[in-house]
Amino acid sequence: MAAGFKGELNRFQPGVSMEISRLDAWYSDCHGSVESTAAYIIRGLCRRCCLPETILRSMQASISLSEAGDSLDRCDKLIELVASSDSGMMHLFSQQQLQEFLIFERECFICKMELEEEQRPADG
């Protein structure tokens, strides 16, 4: 379901989007009668859709800020968060989102190397 919301289904057509105006989940008993809401399903779906996208946009913003002279500490923290098995964040990312994350990680390291190169004293 999350792949559908992210627009990453196998036969997804570019330019086609899904607009969600309401999303409900309910528990039902063995007879099919609705008992109560299943908010955990909605929370899980939002977690799978929103957290990876928020992290990707934060990485993108951090890299842009670093090009303007800001520290790359935020990028490092986001990389550690996603890479950590304790956080369990990596499994929330789709294949496409992981590829985008790796591109941003690469850009982050390139910016770091450029900063280190600029800070080295010039040899004679």
UniProtKB/TrEMBL annotation:
The name this protein goes by in its record? Nuclear pore complex protein
Protein family per UniProt: Belongs to the nucleoporin Nup84/Nup107 family.
Please list the coiled coil stretches. Answer: none
GO cellular component labels = nuclear membrane; nuclear pore outer ring
Give the molecular function GO annotations: structural constituent of nuclear pore
Alphabetically sorted, this entry's keywords are:
Membrane, mRNA transport, Nuclear pore complex, Nucleus, Protein transport, Translocation, Transport
Please give the chief subcellular localization of this protein. nucleus
The GO annotation for biological process reads:
mRNA export from nucleus; post-transcriptional tethering of RNA polymerase II gene DNA at nuclear periphery; protein import into nucleus
Q: Which organism is it from?
A: Aegilops tauschii subsp. strangulata (Goatgrass)
